[in-house]
């Protein structure tokens, strides 16, 4: 799968923009504050239904304007698809796929899977568990919509349970009423955990192998799910029920639910050292890249379509050899890469675009367009 064209109207600093992309590496070069990240953001938004940077969708509309439109044409193996996003000042968003309005954002997710990598994605390794849960949640949702709906359901049930924990005055009363919630909560939570366990199981070997290659066999990367580790749905459910029960008194005192998939994590080790806490900046960065490449491979295997890779200003942080190795790993995917300067020696076949004050022009076209 690849993006054939993108049209923007009043999106961030773009008044209007119409760009045809190439199926392989597309490099967007420009000075700071010209619109490179904004361009990638429009693609991410068309894929996931929200911005990687903000929840305030009003901010995405060009200042002084009342609405913004994005139109992305995607070439899939057997057909073409058009995704349109309409943003309005009153925060109402509409999405159309092939001119038909969709009712839920879940219907968009998975239509055009992307793997996104910006410098602060290193948070995936060095920051709190919520970054790693977000990584799993976005990825698995793109692979399977059922997961996305399970997450929405879990969040709703969890909010209700937390409300009950806060509002119920006596612990005895709580004990009598909570069971009804916990049966539903455990049912949803156990399915979420099983999805995550399977996801980690599928990416751990590709991530390890990629990392081994890029580090010239120096580093062994191992990831595992930190939570209940059991592949039987029933066993997970029983363990969860026990956990929720055991923690009920302290949850009642705290006023929120302290166990469950919303508290789980991914353990990430290099040569047996936990790099979430003890990894060097370089190790953390490279491990993130290895995970992203494992993501790409998994998406391709499961969806039978190649996902699109969005790379925001990541090359500047890699030395020449690692840069080349990395570009070599991703050469079969459509990649949209932004940078302030690009050394053509790194990939002589890339299409290069200039970005200047929200105007994108094709600088050098090395490929025949399909
Ligand atoms: N809603 C908006 N309307 C108009 N301009 C905006 C809006 N939101 C952000 N901008 C402006 O868009 C400009 C370009 O931002 P962008 O993040 O795309 O730059 P960039 O080319 O990625 O730069 P850098 O190399 O520094 O990362 C910024 O100067 C920002 O102030
Ligand atoms: Mg930028």
How is this structure best summarized?
The protein has 370 residues and is of the alpha/beta class. The chain has helices spanning 36-48, 123-126, 129-143, 145-167, 171-214, 233-246, 248-254, 275-278, 281-303, 320-329, and strands at 2-11, 14-20, 25-29, 67-75, 80-88, 93-97, 100-101, 114-117, 221-226, 265-270, 273-274, 308-312, 335-339, 351-356, 359-364.
What can you tell me about this protein's structure?
The chain is of the alpha/beta class and 370 residues long. The chain is built from ten helices and 15 strands. The strands form three sheets. The chain has a six-stranded antiparallel sheet, with helices on one face. A six-stranded mixed sheet has the order 8-12-13-3-14-15, sandwiched between helices. Helix 3 packs across helix 4 and helix 5 crosses helix 9. The site of magnesium ion has 4 residues, from helix 1. Magnesium ion (MG) binds next to helix 1.
């Amino acid at each position: 799968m690849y993006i054939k064209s993108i049209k923007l109207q009043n999106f961030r600093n773009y008044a209007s923009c119409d760009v045809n992309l190439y199926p392989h590496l597309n490099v967007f070069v420009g000075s700071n504050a010209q619109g490179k990240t904004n361009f990638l953001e429009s693609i991410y938004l068309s894929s996931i239904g929200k911005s990687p940077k903000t929840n305030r969708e009003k901010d995405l509309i060009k200042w002084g304007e009342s609405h913004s439109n994005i139109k992305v044409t995607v070439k899939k193996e057997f057909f073409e698809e058009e995704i349109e996003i309409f943003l309005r000042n009153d925060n109402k968003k509409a999405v159309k796929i092939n001119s038909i309005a969709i009712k839920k954002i879940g219907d968009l997710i998975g239509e055009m899977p992307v793997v996104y990598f910006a410098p602060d994605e290193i948070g995936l390794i060095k920051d709190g568990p919520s970054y790693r849960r977000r990584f799993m949640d976005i990825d698995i949702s793109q692979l399977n919509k059922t997961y996305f709906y399970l997450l929405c359901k879990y969040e709703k049930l969890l909010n209700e349970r937390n409300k009950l924990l806060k509002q119920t005055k006596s612990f005895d009363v709580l004990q009598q009423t909570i069971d009804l919630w916990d049966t539903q909560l455990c049912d949803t939570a156990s399915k979420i955990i099983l999805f995550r366990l399977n996801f980690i199981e599928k990416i751990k070997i590709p991530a390890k192998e990629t990392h081994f290659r890029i580090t010239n066999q120096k580093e062994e990367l191992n990831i595992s799910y930190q939570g209940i580790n059991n592949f039987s749905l029933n066993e997970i459910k029983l363990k969860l029920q026990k956990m929720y029960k055991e923690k009920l008194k302290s949850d009642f005192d705290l006023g929120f639910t302290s166990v469950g998939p919303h508290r789980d994590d991914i353990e990430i080790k290099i040569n047996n050292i936990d790099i979430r806490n003890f990894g060097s900046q370089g190790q953390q960065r490279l491990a993130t890249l290895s995970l992203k490449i494992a993501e790409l491979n998994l998406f391709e295997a499961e969806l039978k379509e190649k996902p699109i890779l969005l790379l925001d200003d990541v090359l500047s942080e890699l030395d020449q050899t690692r840069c080349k190795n990395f570009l070599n790993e991703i050469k079969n995917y459509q990649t949209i890469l932004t940078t302030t300067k690009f050394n053509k020696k790194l990939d002589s076949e890339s299409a290069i675009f200039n970005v200047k004050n929200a105007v994108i022009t094709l600088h050098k076209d090395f490929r025949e367009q399909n």
